[in-house]
Every structure is written in structure tokens, then in C-alpha cells.
Design brief:
- By secondary structure, the chain is mainly α.
- It has four helices and three strands; from the N terminus they run αβββααα.
- Strands 1-2-3 form a three-stranded antiparallel beta sheet, with no helix packed on it.
- β2 and β3 form a beta hairpin.
- The longest helix is centred in the middle third of the chain and has 28 residues.
- The chain starts with a helix and ends with a helix.
């Protein structure tokens, strides 16, 4: 026999023994013992600590003897914040207009355009061809063959 088949047979026997033992353990070892869903925590070392009361009220909240007040943003404050943000946007737009005024208009054109097949041939020659007529490589796309 090959080593693989010997390994597979031994591994299968080990798995059968393992699962047999696990099933037997589940069936017979926990019989009659019910687990409780409650957890118990040992808090004997926490006796020196005191709890702190936290109280919430309309103006804020209290933690122990300390009082904290919360601030509510009114609709007028929200409108003033929106005006500040809109004024910032206006500044950005004005800066963009100034920049565009100083820019020159131009049209981008290609001096020596290639179509897809010619560009592919040029890439195959690693750009060493001096002109389009020197690229005499015939290519056959793999996609067409599939």
C-alpha cells in the first residue's frame, strides 16, 4: 500500500475512536446533573468600595455630589451656525472664481495618436518602434480564440 492509504486508514480509525469517546462522555457523564443558568460572582474583595448615585434631571445630571449641566442648542443658534457655514462656502466659491480667471484656456490634443491595436503592438515592442510603419507584429487576441 502507498503511504497515503495507510495514513487515511489510521486517521479514519482515530476519528471513529475520538467521536465514540465524545458521544459516550456526553451521554453518560452528565446524566442527572443539570446546569444552572445563573452565574455567581465573588464580590468579597469589593466590600470597601461605595456606590455612587447618578441622578438625571431637566438641566443635566448629578454624579454623587457633583452637578453637571447640559447645554441645549436652540434653533436660532443652529441657524447662525448654518449662516457661518454658508459664508465659508461663499468664500471658497470666490477663491475658485479668482483662480479660474487667472487660468489659460487650452485644448489638449494628441500629436501622434494610436488606436488600440497599434498601442498593443507598441507595448509589445516596449516602445522601441520609431514609427507606426515599423511595427510589423501580428497579434491575435486570446479572447477571440476562446
Amino acid at each position: 500500500m502507498k503511504a497515503y492509504f495507510i495514513f487515511a486508514i489510521i486517521l479514519t480509525v482515530v476519528y471513529i475512536l475520538y467521536y465514540t469517546l465524545m458521544i459516550a462522555k456526553d451521554l453518560y457523564s452528565t446524566k442527572g446533573v443539570k446546569k444552572n443558568d445563573e452565574e455567581e460572582f465573588d464580590v468579597t474583595d469589593l466590600e470597601g468600595e461605595e456606590s455612587i448615585n447618578v441622578i438625571e434631571n431637566d438641566e443635566g445630571f448629578n454624579v454623587g455630589e457633583n452637578e453637571y449641566q447640559t447645554n441645549y442648542v436652540s434653533s436660532q443658534e443652529q441657524q447662525s451656525n448654518n449662516k457661518i457655514e454658508s459664508s465659508r462656502e461663499d468664500v471658497v466659491e470666490k477663491l475658485n472664481e479668482k483662480i479660474k480667471a487667472n487660468m489659460e484656456e487650452m485644448q489638449a490634443t494628441f500629436s501622434n495618436p494610436y488606436n488600440a491595436a497599434e498601442l498593443y503592438k507598441l507595448l509589445l515592442t516596449k516602445g522601441t518602434a520609431k514609427s507606426k510603419s515599423e511595427v510589423d507584429i501580428t497579434t491575435k487576441p486570446v479572447i477571440d480564440e476562446l
